[in-house]
User: Fold this.
Amino acid sequence: MARVVVVVPCYNEAARLPREAFEGFRLPGHELSFLFVDDGSTDATGALLTAMVEGNPSFDMLALEQNSGKGEAVRQGMLRAVSEGADFVAFWDADLATPLLELSRFVPRLAEDPARLVVMGARVRLLGREIERRFYRHVYGRAFATAVSRMLALSVYDTQCGAKLFRAGPELDHVLAEPFLSRWIFDVEILARLVAVTADATPDLSERIFEVPLRVWKDVAGSKVRTTDALRAVQQLAQIGLRYRAALSARHSGS
Assistant:
């Protein structure tokens, strides 16, 4: 039985956080808890989370003094989860665009292979799946994922899905050691840091990351990602490439 902690970054989510869905979710065969990180919210998010945590031993809360961005909220939450003995640590978008039921599919994929480091959700439009995504975001996402794949020399389909599960261990410790460059595309930097720390490891990193095509994903109204963020993401992608240039160059030369 694994101890699974799900970190949920929250910034002004009082009107969107589906409290009942979190309270009603179970993960049979595992010890599950949720850590809600209030990223300096200015609405009633703090009060809502406080009410949720009171009397619920499976809920915990971490309140950041000021808004630091989703990446730092996730990092602080994951550091806390690891320090408290989690075996697997996930981060999950507060609006549950990815339903919690998908976590039931992630955990076995991570548990079945001790060498596997990450299981990531992928928003793939397949028959029999319910992937509701705005057309322009889908097109941009495909272009962005292609650029990331080329930069990292990893055939990753979807870097930005807000549902990921990690194995606690030295690799994750390395990933979380320092703040991320980007507030929004920190997911890419996580992969870049894994490239750096697993450069000489066997099996190769491409065999240690597993993408799960989601059965359901819905573009929930009220997203804080704006059109200008897409332009900023391109700039930040270049900065990440420069920061990890040595490790990425070594990977390209070996691929």
